[in-house]
Recover the amino acids of this structure.
């Protein structure tokens, strides 16, 4: 039975512009399996946005409200740019999802690291 005490978090999809940029910049064509790339991108952008104090303030600290801010690539273009750059430098294309996963994990660990004393 599902735990109804925990909120369900739904992701806002990438906007058409960022979806097209991601697919094109990663070198995928319309017939290629780019959907996994988009899912991994959404997860990584969620990780990055969830570590951002400004985003937390905007959603009142309620991570379930994250979809309210819309396309995470629009909201966090710096992270999206880092992600696209990482994908462009990852070969073969089978390595793209793993590279995106590692980048999202790095954003989380960097945010959790203690700041300068």
């Amino acid at each position: 039975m599902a735990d109804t005490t925990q909120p369900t978090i739904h992701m806002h999809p990438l906007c058409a512009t960022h979806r097209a940029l991601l697919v094109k910049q990663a070198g995928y064509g319309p017939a290629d399996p780019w959907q996994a790339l988009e899912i991994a991108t959404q997860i990584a952008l969620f990780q990055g946005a969830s570590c951002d104090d400004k985003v937390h303030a905007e959603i009142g600290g309620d991570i379930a409200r994250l979809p309210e801010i819309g396309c995470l690539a629009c909201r966090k273009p710096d992270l999206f740019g880092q992600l696209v750059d990482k994908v462009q430098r990852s070969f073969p294309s089978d390595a793209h999802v793993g590279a995106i996963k590692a980048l999202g994990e790095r954003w989380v660990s960097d945010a959790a690291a203690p700041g300068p004393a």
